[in-house]
Amino acid sequence: MKAIITTLTIVSAFFFFMSTSSAQTLTPTPTTRKDAIKQKIEVKKTLLETRKEELKQQILDKKATREAKLAEVRKERISTFWQMLYNRMLANITRLERLIQRIETRLAKIEENNESIDTDNIKDQLLNAKNLLADAKTSLEAANLSIEDVLSSNEPKAAFGVVRNEIQGVKTKLKEIHSILVHVIGDIKGLRVGQDDLNNATESATPTVEVLTPTVEASSPTPTI
Hints:
There is one protein chain. By secondary structure, this protein is mostly helical. It has a domain at about 75-205: Up-down Bundle (Butyryl-CoA Dehydrogenase, subunit A, domain 3). It has helices spanning about 1-25, 30-115, 120-150, 155-190, 195-205. Helix 2 (about 30-115) packs parallel to helix 4 (about 155-190) and helix 3 (about 120-150) runs antiparallel to helix 4 (about 155-190).
């Protein structure tokens, strides 16, 4: 009997201990609740930071796309502007080349009709004009090759400055050639040989150099760099 009572007492004590332990385990302490709240706050904060970074990256991507499109538009404008400028200046050079050839032909006829006439000064001026014209053409072609570097450059404004300097040099040479040829035609008139024919040739072939300003204007189709 005593053994049974002892056994029941032990069993009762065991169940009481287990129920007490379970209650303590299931009931959160104030410290545990505080940590859980803190953890939730940290999770939300991390999510917000992640979302913020995602939005920031999206903005940067859109900006990069927009800048890339603008860069393409600038390149197209520069290319269009340059092609127009190049063609016009090349036409001026071609016109001056033809005029020099006509003057040389006229000078040869004058010498043929009168071998005693001194044309050395005129020939020297023509040679100078031809050399300047060759230099101008070389500079123009060099600028035309450089335009590809401008279009692919990360700093097109600075790169276009090199081309602008080349064009400024070409423009200066063309103006100088124009001045020389006007003077040469005047000297040939002074020879008073074949005056009527020379007047007709002068009226139809007087050099006209269009002054081209290689600057970038704001309006289309000129490029905005």
